[in-house]
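User: My collaborator sent over this chain with a note saying "see what the structure looks like." That's all I know about it. Can you take a look?
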Amino acid sequence: MKKELFRFFKMNDVEYKENILLSSISPIRIGAKATAVTYPDNELKLALLISFLEKSKIKYKIAGRMSNLLPPDEKYEGAVIRTDRLSDYTINSYVLEVFCGMTLPHIARILQNAGLSGFEGLSGIPGSIGGAIVGNAGAFGRQISDLLLDVRVYDRSNGYFYSIKASDLNFGYRSSSIMHSGIVITSAHFNLLQSDPLSIKIEMDRCREIRKNTQPTDKPSLGSCFKRPCEDLAAAWLIDKCGLKGYSIGGAQISEKHAGFIVNNGGSTASDYIALSVYTAKKVYEKFEICLDREVEIM
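Assistant: Without extra context I'll predict from the sequence alone. Here is the result:
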């Protein structure tokens, strides 16, 4: 498998790294080695890579920036596809076209300089455009689907590229119809509003300051571990009421600053993280009879 995989990378000029520790590229600093981490730099290479992996029956994971993905403790025998190099963009009037690997903070800064408003509340979310659309990421009362016009996708089932309107993606709270489909987002169009760059910066700074004061941005994490059980009820509030702030299993700890976050307090494993999330959900159910749904994906 290795020889076949590395031969493909070299023949198709696809950047890759061999036997890389996933903990070195994961925001939570957890994860064993992967056979290869690969960085296709255009959508054709991405499509060729996926097609090759599918036909060769080689395990793979499209990981984006890994901001919502928990890597495993055991070696990942396959290819992890990062979309970092798929980060081009164009702005035409008030419409942004951006590729899937661009991060939300980066594009928010670009739009600020261009005097285009819409991404201010999303500017502190560390994930990529593609992952944010799939999970309908949101903050400060805005979801990314509010701005989306359409997406361009690669369909793994038939090898075709095509576009899908935002209205056809069945967006919900932290969900979309793409989430469990066989399609991969390669780029997207967003509709934005003209505004004053200074006003946009002030709002971005305000959102950033709120995050800094309320979230454990100084410790490795994957953001909120659990989804809200309903619109008016936060998982963090339920967890806090169970007295679990600061509770640890191994190196994984429920943040003392924000009970919705599980942080790596030093030497945490994926098993620690999973055990702590299961224990937390169990305690919340015992006290409130409410089931918490994990937002973080287990790789």
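A starting point for your reply to your collaborator: The domain at 216-298 is CATH 3.90.78.10 (Uridine Diphospho-n-acetylenolpyruvylglucosamine Reductase; domain 1).
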